[in-house]
Design brief:
Shape of chain A: globular
Largest sheet of chain B: 7 strands, mixed
Distance between the termini of chain A: 41 Å
Strand content of chain B: over 45%
Structural class of chain A: mainly beta
Oligomer: heterodimer
Shape of chain B: globular
Distance between the termini of chain B: 29 Å
Number of helices of chain A: 0
Number of helices of chain B: 0
Helix content of chain B: under 10%
Radius of gyration of chain A: 13 Å
Structural class of chain B: mainly beta
Order of helices and strands of chain B: EEEEEEEEEEE
Number of strands of chain A: 11
Strand content of chain A: over 45%
Chain lengths: 112, 110
């Protein structure tokens, strides 16, 4: 069964600290993996997209990693800011069609 | 809004009423999508359209219909709303590399 699981479900960290969010998937055949940030009351916004051959990709303070062998990805946030408070969603696409599998997201709260 | 506009932003319906959620893009993408997002669940695909005039069912199409009359617009229709359709609905445009989501429509069915 094609699934995407994220952990932790929620996370609270102090401003300035780092954190890592996890994404495990069973989607096959794998096409690409994306991380989205969704602010409360808004639509998701793409942070990174990774293909099978990519191990690491950065976008400012966000760094995503992908291990296609173990089917795991992580999103590392460095020097967190209050504006990082949001839900982070992992999405894996399958094959060459419009098949996208969404995780339930990790809710991150950054406190002063 | 990532080049995707959705109307209305909020809507309250009574069971059995019908309505159409509107979505428009300004970036000329072929593909457009309708998702619903419910608490504790990931975004689920309702319908998608790979090009003008074509539509395909997603994971949860029951109770919905869609229309893609031109490249710019993709509408979602609830013919007879049910409380189970209370949700936040997102329209998206895009393709393989990424998707761009609209701001969402919050729908409450009483």
């Amino acid at each position: 069964k094609n699934q995407v699981e994220q952990s932790p479900q929620s996370l609270i960290i102090l401003e300035g600290k780092n954190c890592t969010l996890q994404c495990n998937y069973t989607v096959s055949p794998f096409s690409n993996l994306r991380w989205y940030k969704q602010d409360t009351g808004r639509g998701p916004v793409s942070l990174t997209i990774m293909t099978f051959s990519e191990n690491t990709k950065s976008n400012g303070r966000y760094t995503a990693t992908l291990d296609a062998d173990t089917k795991q990805s992580s999103l590392h946030i460095t020097a967190s800011q209050l504006s990082d408070s949001a839900s982070y969603i992992c999405v894996v696409s399958r094959g060459t069609g419009n098949q996208f599998y969404f995780g339930t997201g990790t809710s991150l709260t950054v406190i002063p | 809004n990532a080049g995707v506009t959705q109307t209305p932003k909020f809507q309250v319906l009574k069971t059995g009423q019908s309505m159409t959620l509107q979505c428009a893009q300004d970036m000329n993408h072929n593909s457009m999508y309708w998702y619903r997002q419910d608490p504790g669940m990931g975004l689920r695909l309702i319908y998608y359209s790979a090009s003008e005039g074509t539509t395909d069912k997603g994971e949860v199409p029951n109770g919905y219909n869609v229309s893609r009359l031109n490249k710019r617009e993709f509408s979602l229709r609830l013919e007879s709303a049910a409380p189970s359709q209370t949700s936040v609905y997102f329209c998206a445009r895009g393709a393989w590399e990424t998707q761009y989501f609209g701001p969402g429509t919050r729908l409450l069915v009483l």
